[in-house]
Structures are given as structure tokens and as C-alpha cells.
Amino acid sequence: AQRVTQPEKLLSVFKGAPVELKCNYSYSGSPELFWYVQYSRQRLQLLLRHISRESIKGFTADLNKGETSFHLKKPFAQEEDSAMYYCAVDNYGQNFVFGPGTRLSVLP
Amino acid sequence: DAGVIQSPRHEVTEMGQEVTLRCKPISGHNSLFWYRQTMMRGLELLIYFNNNVPIDDSGMPEDRFSAKMPNASFSTLKIQPSEPRDSAVYFCASSLVVGGYEQYFGPGTRLTVT
Question: Given CB atoms, is B102 within the 8 Å cutoff of chain A?
Fold first, then answer.
């Protein structure tokens, strides 16, 4: 079955530490991959997408087709990064699925 | 642009009552999505429309749920009759086109069915 997994429900790191939020997907073809973020009391919003290959707020994500992973990374976490992070896969209109989410808590 | 607008923001109703959630997508966006978010199941896609036409409603949990998009600027999600297990946050999102594009989310409607 096509699905997106995020193995960690909660990830806690100290400020300044590196952070990696894992995402694995099982899809046929070449879907588009996204990371969305939901800060406290704010709307769910796009953080970055694979096709843009850009760094947003210091975050990057690398697509590894061999491992079918799209892990989100940041070398130095900040307290304002504390939020809920969702990995999402879009198979160009055929399927659109969000992962279960990982709550990142950056401790002072 | 105010972004995606949803109403009401909060809804409390009794089991068995009809509930209607409303969504206004961003002007010019051709695709509209309805999601349900719960602690147990996370964010689930219920249905999405392209050019006002329902494309995939396989995520709609049961016949008690129905969604319509009578025009490009308005959509409704109706639950009739409502049950306590329908309690969740319901999000509406829109995108320029379906497939491969960013989705813009509304603030959500928190539904509580007692």
C-alpha cells in the first residue's frame, strides 16, 4: 500500500544541536515530496518541497530514491523551530498523503 | 488576500445533529482539499475537487459525510447525522492546480460532537 511514515512521534533536542526528522515513503513512480510545518496557533504551511532544492529557515531535505526517504535536517536547532512537522507525498493528482507527523521540541 | 477562509472556527453540537463546515479557497486556485486531523489518525485527506468537480472521495469515512463545491469560491463539508467519533479539526486547503503544487491551508474548524 502507498504510504508515508515518520517513525518519531516526538523529537526533543537542545538548542544548537543538529536535528533530523525522518520520512520514508512507499510510492510507485516519481512523486513530489514536501515538508509542511504547523507552529503553535498557526496554520499548516509549506516549509519546503523537493523540486525547489532550497533551504528554508536553515532546513534542507534530501531525496534518496534508493532508500525512498526524504529526511529533514537542520545543523543547529533554534527554539522557534519547535512545531509539528509533516512529510507529504503528492503523486501528481493520483494520491496525496501526509505522514503522521513529528513534534519537534527544541529545549533551551 | 486573506488566504483560505473557513467557518465556523469552532462548532459544538449534539450527536445526531447535522453539521455543515464551510470553506472559501484562495481566488484563482483550481483545486480544493478537505482534511480531518485527529490525535489517533493524524491528518487524513477526505476528498478533493479540481475545477469544482470531486476527483477522489475515497477518504470520506462513510455515507454520513458529503462534500459539495457549487462554484469556484465555495465548498461545504456536511456530516449528517453527526457522531462523537467525528470530533476532530477539519481543514480546508486550496492549490493552484492539483498535483505537485503547494497547498494553502485554512485555520481549521474544531468540531466537538457530544
Answer: yes
Across the interface, whether the CB atoms of B55 and A93 are under 8 A apart is answered yes
Chain B residue with Cα closest to A51: B100
B3 in reach of chain A (CB within 8 A): yes
How many whole angstroms separate alpha carbon A78 and alpha carbon A16? 6
pLDDT recorded at residue A1:
60
DSSP assignment of chain B: ---SEEE-SEEEE-TT--EEEEEEPPTT--EEEEEEEETTTEEEEEEEEETTEEEE-TT--STTEEEEEEETTEEEEEESS--GGG-EEEEEEEESSSSSS--EE---EEEEE-
Q: Tell me if chain A has a CB within 8 Å of the CB of B105.
A: yes
At residue B39, φ and ψ (nearest 5 deg) are: -65, -40
On whether the CB atoms of residues B102 and B95 are closer than 8 A, the answer is yes
* The pLDDT of residue B97: 81
Percent of chain B with pLDDT over 70: 99
The dihedral built from the CA positions of residue A38, A87, B93 and B36, taken in this order, carries a sign that is negative
Distance CA(B66)–CA(B86), nearest Å, equals: 13
Residue A46 has its nearest CB partner, among B44, B102, B106, at B102
Min mean pLDDT across A24-28, A101-105, B9-13 is at A24-28
